[in-house]
Amino acid sequence: MWRWIGFAFALPLLGAGSRWEIQYFYDQLHTQLELVDLAFPSPDRGIAVGSIWETGPDKPPKPVALLTSDGGAHWTSTPLKDVPRSVFFFNESLGWMVCDNGIWQTEESGRTWKKIGDQKRGDRAKYGSNAGMIARVWFADAQKGFAIGYQKTALSTTDGGKTWKPIEEAAKPAGNPAFTAYTQIVFATPTVGLIAGGAVPPRRDSPRYPAWMAPEQAMKQKQVPTLTITLETRDAETWTASTAPLYGFVTRLRLTRTQGMYIFSFDESFEVPSEVYHLDLGTGKSNSAFRAVDRRVTDGLVFDEGGAFLAAVEPPGKLSSAPIPGKVKMLTSPDMTNWSEMDVDYRAVARSLVLAGPDAAHLWAATDTGMILHLKPGD
User: How far apart are CA 235 and CA 187, in angstroms?
Assistant: First the structure.
């Protein structure tokens, strides 16, 4: 249970003309760009990673990174050697990228990358550190970091990712490793952090086809609790695991020094597609902060000095998981209770979005439809 003493925060007022504008849009015939993650370690430098997909059978993806050094006014596309999953930047120059075949590091703001780690050495069953198991990393400094992923993978490093060792507590929670994954990691301070994930075993009554191919069957399938797993540390060394049967699956986790936000996503049969919870780190209590039948929230940001933001998609039909992009919807709140929708470029559509920014005055969003949006403050 979290027990920290919080402090008051105030939201810098955004002008009446504030709106999310498209800064970058990939628009090429017979190909599409899917951006999977975004990082902005400073107001000037940012990086979005993803893959370009060509139409036609058996076309391999072309991994790519988009770089900016002027706050998104200009973006440069550079090819990558591996398909990216996520990125983490410690500062403007030093960052790590998790890919399908390993972890890569940059010391040049993403302009060049080198593969690191011992993912191809060692025992997979013991370490879980083989390529393909890692989903995300988090670094407290240039040397000390953590990696999480599939099959109960949770690792730590003290040499910048060159070598890894398992977090033994991660293997203890119940749940078949084949169906268990740690998908979210975040630290409120260099030593106090949280890892979240869950176990979702296959169901006997699972539809034979994707929900969009059999919508009636998907909407009738009863939502059942799944095992949500968390690992908590207060010294970046020892971890404590806890489990709880909860509806849905944690798809995003954010922490500041005083508060947190976590987002649950649900099956088609549930009454809402997602729900956002607010965590008060001073009292350890959490409460529902946002839920709506026509807003599928895919990411959020919360700032001690500047309120909270949500990135959502308006489903184009009855199914929230339909493969058809929906309109992008952005929301903001000064207190994680009262939410208002923000003005968004009408051309912005997506199935999923990620948010990034160093503070509430400098925010960007990347979509799986090849767009990057920027929050332009009003007068």
Answer: 11
Say which residue the tokens 């939410």 belong to: 339
CA 291, 297, 302, 308 dihedral sign is negative
Residue that has been written with the tokens 């968004």 in this structure: 344
Full DSSP string of 7-31 = ----PPPPPTT-EEEEEEE---TTE
Question: Which tens digits make up the pLDDT trace of 352-361?
Answer: 999 999 999 9
Tokens, residue 208? 């034979």
Q: Tokens at residue 130, please?
A: 């083989």
- 311 vs 295: CA distance, rounded Å: 9
In this prediction, residue 328 has a pLDDT band, given cuts at 50, 70 and 90, of: very high
How remote is the C-alpha of 328 from its chain's centroid? Answer: 17
What's the distance, CA 90 to chain centroid? 16
3-state secondary structure of 283: coil
Q: What is the mean pLDDT of residues 343-366?
A: 96
Which helix H or strand E contains 268, and what residues bound it? none
What is the residue whose two structure tokens read 């992009």? Answer: 325
Residues 6+ apart with CB under 8 A from 85: 36, 37, 98, 99, 100, 134, 135, 136
Q: What is the C-alpha to C-alpha distance for residues 366 and 281, in angstroms, rounded to an integer?
A: 29
How much is the average pLDDT of 330-337?
A: 94
Question: Distance from first CA to last CA of the chain, Å, rounded?
Answer: 42
